[in-house]
Design a protein that fits this description.
The complex is a heterodimer.
Chain A lengths: L2 E6 L2 E6 L6 H8 L18 E4 L2 E4 L12 E3 L12 H8 L9 H14 L5 H7 L11 H15 L1
Parallel strand pairs in A: 1-5
Antiparallel strand pairs in A: 1-2, 3-4, 3-5
Helix pairs in contact in A: 2-5, 3-5
Chain B lengths: L14 H4 L16 E7 L5 E7 L1 H5 L3 E6 H6 L31 E2 L5 E7 L2 H8 L3 E6 L24 E8 L1 H10 L2 E9 L11 E7 L4 E6 L4 H12 L7 E4 L15 H13 L3 E4 L2 H7 L6 E9 L5 E13 L26 E10 L13 H19 L3 H8 L6 E2 L5 E2 L4 H11 L5 H10 L3 E10 L7 H6 L8 E7 L5 E5 L8 H13 L6 E4 L17 H27 L7 E4 L2 E4 L5 E3 H10 L13 E6 L8 E11 L4 E12 L6 H20 L32 E4 L17 H18 L10 H16 L1
Parallel strand pairs in B: 1-12, 10-11, 14-15, 20-21, 27-28
Antiparallel strand pairs in B: 1-5, 2-4, 2-6, 3-5, 7-15, 8-13, 9-10, 9-12, 13-14, 16-17, 18-26, 19-20, 19-25, 22-23, 23-24, 26-27
Helix pairs in contact in B: 9-18, 14-15, 15-16, 17-18
The chains are: A alpha+beta, B alpha+beta.
């Protein structure tokens, strides 16, 4: 089996994978980083979003081998040195999560969204969340949290 | 009051693990030597199983075992049960067909469970499942529409004509009399569309048998682990109750779908003993679509009788409810006692009569989904009231106001006794917040932009907290519906609360701790809320029907009463004071009118040292339990006003304003309650505009079996919501709570459809009102006008 090597949350990791192994399975099953979730099988829900070289990617639609040599950040790696990322803080402050299952993907998507679009407004946030499903919050407070974090990070 | 007490928007404690990716959901758990399970599912809606050939599958790489219904039967396991028995008009008991763990002779829906394949890896189990050769003899599919037609195929032999029950409620004669006297009548035919719950975490289970102790542990995505243990032991016979521990760890949403006891977790627990290794199963989303219990799916005809002035005289409803292929855990209760009993709405209707035919079809079982019966009832009432207003020239707000129940308690003709409410208060506030008076101007302005603007009302009431055990028992429930709690105070004063409620997004670890903080004066960090484990929590009925506040917290409240009473006794002896003079305030016991005081930890430590008080009179230790049985259902109510704009070119409906003013009684944490409303509204609006579980009439195949086909509500489908509260304090429980988890999904669908039909000037449009349907409705209604 081929060996894949990548940096995950700042640590170099490698492991044997099958050609068909998805990045999300490598992260969850081989690295035991279970914060990244699988909520569907059609790349619709976004619970599996991680960052590859700083960009939000659905890890259920990426082969582990495609991330060979890449810099991967999962939800577990977002709080650098233990301090929460402003987006994590905002999700708690604005009650942007309930059951927590979609939350890692939502947060990883939001971080990338804010990076790409420093001047976010509500309409843009809602459109940008097209690829992330939440069944609990009605999105209301997720949108609020992302806007608040965006504002804080701009300041 | 402590800074974390009742009424404070305390930020959630559980968030700290979820936002860091440290939650522990069932699929995140792995057991040593674990195997992986995959279920072979029926590709047919309805078929006889002629034979099953396991030879190739057994020989496939990594396969540990393959089991079929024959193995289940040989081990003497019974099938799954429905915990609620309803009776037909003629007094006969509902005709329940068997609900096998693995189908041995016949499959009854696409996704039905035929074999369990266990292998070293999930990939190996999936590959081997493809090698299980099942020889089927297909039979015709049975749909909701054709189920009771002569000549339809029979889903269960026990239920001729596919009729499980023909239920009725109310006074038929009185209702007929009301109609005979009526100056005006209106009628409407309504479909309540089938929904797929789609909690974001798919169901999962790990069965783990410990041969040394002869004990089973089952990790499962459950809203009520104790009920799962009871069913699996007492009814299915997997293991004796004291030899089975069920753990529901972090659970990623439920909405009803995780109340039920399904074949998958049952099979994993059972088979773990057979193979002597842990077995893990995790549904993929496609399986969730096929095999989670779905919601709603009613066809109804309703008639309302009114007098000349618009006062309601009587309501008649006839409903055909889809039960699916098997009776799921609570399914018989949903289209009967959770539905017919709410048909009085917020109105004083002197006579009501409802008939419900519960029918079997070759579709996934149908059971409780957020609201469970009350959204269906509210849809009937609020659509026909709106129709009555339009057809008779009444203002939709004023016809409601005229007919509101205004004095309490109010006995409806359909069992419920409304204890308190103020329906005019929520209506008035909603009219103000939604700026109802300004609507004509907004409509005119929208028309200038080429948009059709409409406004729709829904003044709903629902019943939560289910309910006094004696009452539900008399209506057919097989269980009591109390809740239990234990409050255990450690010698250092730290508190552990063991609750039978289960949190899968509701924030109990925060709100329940707020109650304890309010009562004891301790900070939240000194209070731990423990739930979801039959090995730690003494008992519980679980979380559904918006009952965790009104029932679950009331049990905690009662247990704290006992803890406080005992601690005060101890404190009184320690301070040599009369017990009545000792008060607990701000985390200290004080003798009234003196400077004598002992801190909470001083007293709790003494409780365990047994020093300074008479242990012959007062037992050492400080741990108390309570079982709380509610006095009545609770009755959350409110008014939703939806304003929409339709683009006539495309048929796309945009929600431009949505106002929800609710009466939930006492609110512990307004931030969490608002979050519950937001989520409920999106599920309700999702039903009205987007979601539809569709089975092909001919083949019985699920046509909407993925997120590519089933339209889930997305963030850009909604504006922000305008919420408000007009609480009346519930007299039936110690804190005056009513429940908030389902209200959004109950009140909103008729508000949306009333708004669309208002904009289009039509009587009805079926849910979901997709752009295609709206566009077609515009074309259809435009044609006669042009001609």
């Amino acid at each position: 089996m081929p060996v894949v090597t990548m940096t995950v949350n700042g640590k170099s990791v490698s492991g044997e994978v099958e050609g068909r192994t998805l990045l999300v399975n490598f992260i969850r099953d081989q690295l035991n980083l279970t914060g990244t979730h699988v909520g569907c099988d059609t790349s619709q829900c976004g619970a599996c979003v991680v960052h590859i070289d700083g960009k939000a990617v659905k890890s259920c639609a990426t082969l582990a081998l495609q991330a060979d040599g890449a810099e991967v950040t999962t939800i577990e790696g977002l709080a650098a040195g233990g301090d929460l990322h402003p987006v994590q803080r905002a999700f708690k402050e604005h009650h942007g999560l309930q059951c927590g299952f979609c939350t890692p993907g939502m947060i990883m998507t939001a971080v990338d969204m804010i990076r790409r679009k420093p001047e976010l407004d509500e309409k843009t946030v809602r459109e940008e969340l097209e690829g992330n499903l939440c069944r609990c919050t009605g999105y209301h407070n997720i949108v609020k949290a992302i806007l608040a974090a965006s504002e804080e990070m701009r300041a | 009051m402590s800074e974390w007490g009742i009424g404070k928007p305390v930020r959630r404690r559980e968030d700290d693990r979820f936002i860091r990716g440290r939650g522990q959901y069932t699929d995140d758990i792995n057991r040593p030597n674990q195997t992986h399970a995959v279920f072979v599912r029926s590709p047919h809606a309805h078929a006889l199983i002629r034979s099953i050939d396991l030879e190739e599958a057994n020989a496939a790489p990594g396969v540990v075992a393959v089991f079929t219904g024959k193995d289940v039967a040989e081990d003497g396991l019974a099938g799954l049960i429905c915990g609620w028995t309803v009776h037909s008009k003629d007094g006969s008991e509902m005709k329940a067909g068997g609900h096998p763990i693995l189908a041995a002779e016949k499959v009854r829906y696409v996704g039905d469970h035929v074999a369990l394949v266990i292998a070293e890896t999930k990939a190996q189990a999936l590959a081997a499942a493809d090698l299980v050769l099942v020889d089927y003899e297909p039979l015709p599919a049975v749909s909701l529409k054709n189920s009771t037609e002569p000549g339809s195929a029979q889903v269960h032999e026990e239920a001729p004509g596919n009729l499980c029950f023909e239920w009725e409620l109310g006074d038929k004669t009185a209702t007929e009399e009301a109609f005979s006297k009526a100056a005006r009548t209106v009628s409407i035919d309504l479909a309540n569309n089938r929904l797929v719950p789609n909690a974001m975490e798919p169901r999962a289970a790990i069965g783990d048998y410990d041969a040394g102790r002869d004990e089973y542990t089952l990790w499962t995505t459950s809203q009520n682990p104790h009920v799962a243990r009871l069913v699996l032991s007492a009814f299915v016979g997997v293991a004796p109750e004291h030899k089975l521990r069920v753990i529901a760890p972090d659970v990623g949403g439920g909405f009803g779908s995780k109340i039920f006891i399904y074949p998958e977790e049952t099979a994993c627990a059972w088979a773990s003993k057979k193979i002597g290794r842990p077995i893990k199963w995790t549904a993929d989303r496609s399986e969730a679509f096929l095999a989670d219990a779905h919601g709603r799916d009613h066809l109804s005809h309703a008639e309302l009788a009114l007098d000349e002035d618009g006062k309601f005289l009587g309501l008649k409803v006839k409903t055909k409810a889809n039960l699916g292929a098997y009776l799921s855990t609570f399914s018989a209760a949903v289209p009967t006692y959770l539905y017919g009993t709410l048909l009085s709405g917020q109105y004083d209707i002197p006579a009501i009569y409802v008939e419900v035919d519960g029918v079997y079809t070759t579709t996934s079982p149908v059971d409780a989904y957020r609201g469970a019966g009350r959204p269906e009832a509210t849809y009937i009432v609020e659509r026909i009231v709106e129709t009555a207003a339009r057809e008779n020239g009444f203002d939709p707000a004023e016809i409601r106001r005229m007919n509101f129940v205004k004095t309490f308690p109010h006995q409806t003709p359909v069992i419920m006794n409304y204890d308190i409410g103020d329906f005019e208060a929520s209506l008035d506030k909603a009219l103000e917040v939604a700026d109802y008076a300004g609507f004509p101007d907004r409509k005119e302005e929208a028309a200038k932009r080429g948009k059709l603007r409409g406004i729709g009302f829904s003044t709903y009431i629902e019943a939560c907290g289910i309910a006094p055990s004696a009452a539900v028992g008399s209506l057919g429930a097989g269980v009591g519906l109390w809740e239990s709690a234990e409050v255990q105070v450690a010698p250092t004063g730290k508190i552990e609360v063991f609750t039978g409620s289960h949190s899968h997004g509701q924030g109990h670890e925060t709100t329940f701790a707020q109650l304890v903080s309010e009562r004891t004066g301790l900070p939240l960090e000194d209070i731990e809320i423990i739930h979801g484990d039959t090995g730690r929590v003494q008992f519980g009925m679980g979380t559904y029907g918006s009952r965790s506040g009104a029932v679950g917290m009331s049990a905690i409240f009662k247990a704290i009463d006992k803890v406080e009473a005992k601690a005060r006794k101890i404190a009184a002896q320690l301070m040599e004071a009369a017990e009545d003079d000792v008060v607990l305030e701000n985390g200290a016991f004080t003798v009234k009118g003196t400077d004598k005081s002992l801190s909470w930890p001083e007293v709790t430590l003494a409780a365990y040292t047994g020093h300074g008080f008479d242990t012959a009179e007062i037992e050492p230790g400080l741990k108390e339990s309570a079982f709380y049985d509610p006095l009545n259902f609770t009755f959350p109510s409110g008014c939703h006003i939806c304003e929409i704009e339709i683009d006539p070119e495309t048929g796309v409906t945009e929600i431009v304003n949505f106002t929800a003013i609710d009466d939930f009684g006492t609110i512990i944490n307004p931030m969490i309650v608002e979050g519950q409303v937001h989520g409920g509204l999106v599920q309700g609006i999702g039903q009205a505009l987007y979601e539809h579980g569709i089975y092909d009439e001919e083949s019985g195949q699920l046509m909407t079996g993925s997120f590519m086909d089933y339209c889930m509500p997305r963030a850009d489908n909604f504006p922000g919501f305008k919420l408000g509260f007009t609480p009346t304090v519930c007299p039936s429980n110690p804190m005056g709570m009513k429940g908030c988890g389902e209200a959004g999904a109950i009140g909103s669908p008729p508000a949306v459809i009333n708004a669309i039909t208002d904009a289009l000037g039509i009587k009805d449009i079926p849910m979901p009102a997709t752009p295609a349907r709206v566009w077609a409705a515009i074309q259809n209604s435009a044609t006669p006008k042009a001609a």
